[in-house]
Task: structure prediction
Amino acid sequence: MATVTVTVNGRSHVVNCSDGQEGHVARMARGLDQHVQRLAAAVGPTVNESTLLVMAGILLAEEAAQARAELDRRRHGPAGGAAAGEAAVAADLERLAERIDAIARHLETS
Result:
């Protein structure tokens, strides 16, 4: 079991993760921190940190739900049979992987 220290909203947190996953966890934490910082700027100093983190979690959960719904729509929606649906899903997954890689590269340089 590995540990990684991440910073979210200016506070350091030690997080356990699987060996070899430290970089991934650090990248995800930087993404969370970016969401938190945008929220903090939008809502101002009146919201406490706990509420701010809950709000960021809800926003991230919403993004994940939208991505799952879009994937389900694409998986079950295209006309042309199962082969066409599978090809569309494969193309969508490839685009999502490219987007995730681009986001990860952006987070690494931030």
